[in-house]
Amino acid sequence: MNARVTEQQIAEACRGLGFALAGVCDVRPSARGAEYREWLRAGRHGLMAYLARNTSIRENPAELLPDARCAIMVGDLYHERSESRPGAEPGKGLIARYARGRDYHKVLKKRLHALCDALGAQHPGAAFRAFVDTAPVMEREIAQLAGLGWIGKNTLLIHPRLGSFFFLGGVLTTLDIPNNPSLVADHCGTCTRCIDACPTQAISPYSVDASRCISYLTIEHRAPIDPVFHEAMGSWLYGCDICQEVCPHNSPRAEHIDVGRLHEAYAPTRRELDLVEVLNWTEEDRRGALAGSAMTRATLEMLQRNALIVASNTLRSGCVEPLRSKLLEAITRATRDEARPALSALAAELLRRLAEA
Ligand code: B12
Ligand code: SF4
Ligand code: SF4
To answer: 22 is in which domain, residue-wise?
Structure first.
């Protein structure tokens, strides 16, 4: 008979695998099922149809793994607390911090599988199910229950010392791990910075209307982007970090932070992309440039759509020669893209509006 695994052994194993945060909680039904269903009913998921599927698993994560008893939740830091908000260089489009290094799905999953293998070797009868992002579970709620942080008004999980620039992943297991996580209190208080700073007014306290969120619009939304959001996108080519940049829990701290290090895989390889370059990309160029990064989620047409909008915002806010001519030329060239009518219509519309301005 194998000895029982303890919460402390899990924490040590996770630390050994380089996770900045780790915690254990019992698997239980979501306390937020009603809010989730209301969010869907109001259409806040936009065109992310997958969020409306498997709602019973989301509300009861035990359905993902028969006889699941516990969840081991981990956090991988991808950006340290720092002074932020440097905008994009003129002519460039910004990439959200989470997508600047290697694809977190792969980086996290590999180490979660190593954790499952190690635990499986010690407890041969036990079953495990690792998840990162894509499984139908509400990761933030489970991570909060495992003591990794509190859910902020911007809906992100925030750790009192690390801030919110970390990924989440987890393992459901049939192992019974005695646990006593200390829940982190909500430190948002009367602050409303994220709500006030969101350029598309997507945030109401503790809820994001994804259909208005720049992250959704630039990464998930495959249809044309409603022109009401074009200017608000500013220079965001892929994702958006504004509601995290303004959060006081992500600003630098004088004292040494003794937990969690940035995982090396997330060392940023690029923080922005050249707009004219993206507009000239072929499918092969896109694949080559973005290999190994989470940015492959967006199709070439989506990236070029985003680049057209950011280019037009750059022209609108005023930029000098020769950049001005280069951007205008790239948008004009896109109007002749007969193979992609949605892109050429967008380019023509942007030029028309620029001429009017
Ligand atoms: C769909 C999705 C999105 C959508 C919708 C975002 C959203 N806020 O729901 C879009 C595309 C917009 C998005 C954007 C981003 N995402 Co995202 N996303 C997801 C995904 C796949 C599902 C989230 C989901 O189910 N949303 C539906 C809503 C209704 O669920 P919810 O907000 O969790 O719902 C809870 C709250 O409403 C809460 N609630 C309701 N009322 C109240 C009241 C109080 C007082 C409290 C405390 C809570 C509360 O209860 C609900 C159930 O728990 C998760 C991974 C996962 N499987 O969980 C990643 C995830 C949330 N995303 C992540 C990241 C990094 C981002 C971005 C920062 C990326 C970027 N820079 O562009 C942005 C942040 C935007 C933002 N402010 O949320 C990380 C967040 C890590 C963290 N530290 O929190 C996750 C966990 C992925 C991961 N594995 O690391 N994302
Ligand atoms: S990611 Fe940007 S657009 Fe989305 S809720 Fe946060 S600030 Fe608003
Ligand atoms: S900006 Fe303020 S309200 Fe928003 S999540 Fe951070 S602390 Fe909470």
So the answer is: 7-352
